[in-house]
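User: Before I run my own analysis I want an independent prediction to cross-check against. Here's the chain; please return only the structure tokens and, at the end, one sentence I can use as a sanity check.
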Amino acid sequence: MNYQLPNINYQLPINHMPSPVGHTFAGICGFVLARPYVAWHQQTRLLYGSVLLTNLPDIDILPGLLLLGNPGAFHRQATHSLIVAAIIGIFVAWLVGRWKLNRLRWGIWAALVYGSHLLLDMLVADPTAPFGVQALWPFSLEYFISPITIFARFDYFNPELGMVCTILSIPNFLGILWEIVVLTPLVGLAWYGFGKTDGRKPLAR
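Assistant: Structure tokens:
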């Protein structure tokens, strides 16, 4: 089943979606927001960690690819849920606690960075059912999508083209360009609004 807010289903005519590049932009935003609280020599690790978190939900393409030869077989299900985002936040909170950092704040940061992937995927003008992501898994197997969509799906696999040719297709390339247009201003806003280092203290206990 699919859930969609009633009476509004406006889709922009430009059909582009968050590819891994788009999700990486979201990860850069997460890095920019947290970097003032991290020592400069740790910021590279923070960047890698933030980008990893924003792309991590798409790990669900691996079971379908390895078992069925179809990367979309299990895509946008369990790993695209709020409960998994919360679990990731709890794990990060436990991890940073070993370094005497503020568990609550870093846990919330990690959950939000991971959850940004869900948000971007819900903004996809998905042309085929099921539409959206299983945001409330395992409590509900319904798919949720935003009533306003600004991206179109990034295709990983087309049986007629094969996986490599599908990923390198012109529609996907144009989608990446659109992501850059849409998401670059958000990175700039995060940088100039929150990302400047101004002597703020690390998020310690």
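Sanity check: The two ends are 44 Å apart (CA to CA).
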